[in-house]
Amino acid sequence: SAVISQKPSRDICQRGTSLTIQCQVDSQVTMMFWYRQQPGQSLTLIATANQGSEATYESGFVIDKFPISRPNLTFSTLTVSNMSPEDSSIYLCSVEEFRGTEAFFGQGTRLTVV
Amino acid sequence: EDKVVQSPLSLVVHEGDTVTLNCSYEVTNFRSLLWYKQEKKAPTFLFMLTSSGIEKKSGRLSSILDKKELFSILNITATQTGDSAVYLCAASHQGGSEKLVFGKGTKLTVNP
For A15-72, what is each residue's pLDDT tens digit? Predict the structure, then answer.
């Protein structure tokens, strides 16, 4: 399976600031996704990161708040913009080597906004 | 609306017990059912099930899918304290969106 490196592992940020989370994979993968897990909740998909084009966002998530880049088949970033305490969550990068195969997750980023 | 429901939400057992975790789903254009173990932040992949009635096994863990009744179970035999975790069930679509729809998870605690 692909080895996924996600960073930072955790961060504490001031409200109103932005944080960029990086996801690096050791091999080319077809699909990359970003999930959010709020405290005590399950995982919710934010968006699918598309290589070379705009990400596909799920209902309730917008590009201005969560801009995503995917310049190639091994790397993606998620930015959490203009943060508020409600953005405190675990953010997870996920990849599928090929469409329809099992999804693997990065180590996650625990974000606390104060 | 797509949904995945897991039960029980939490479970406390003693080492050596056998547990069964349940997952039911209602997903349009269903492709597969996946199980993950989440101990801290990152969910760890356990199984992916696409065919009905075929059991998948890995050590003390096993899982099976029933596509007629729209559910899956995850069995853990001879539980150990290291099995303590949240077990997540997720359903995927085929065609179009590849997103996973997750259940809320079952929190398993195995006491010595």
Answer: 999 999 999 999 999 889 999 999 989 899 999 999 988 999 999 999 999 999 999 9
Cis before A8 (ω within 30): yes
- Closest Cβ–Cβ partner in B32, B41, B105 for A42: B105
Mutate to test the interface with A, among B4, B99, B100 (most CBs of A within 10 A): B99
Give residue ranges of A with CB < 8 Å to any B CB. Answer: 1, 31, 33, 41-45, 48, 56, 58, 90, 92, 94, 96, 99-110
Between CA B108 and CA B111, with CA B110 as vertex, the angle to 5 degrees is 145
Contact B72, B35 (CB under 8 A): yes
